[in-house]
Amino acid sequence: MRSLFKRLRWVFEAILGALMFTMFATFILQVAIRYSARLQWIAEAIPLLDPSKFGWTLEFCLAIWVWLIFLGNAFVVRDQDHVTFDILYFAVRPRVRRWFVIVSGLAICIALIMSIAPTWDRFYILRLKKTATLSELFGNWIRMREIYMVYILFLVVVSARYAWRVWLLFRHGTEALTQPSEGQKP
Question: Which of 73, 75, 79, 176 is geometrically suited to a Cys-Cys bond with 172, CB 3.0 to 4.6 A?
Answer without folding.
Answer: 176
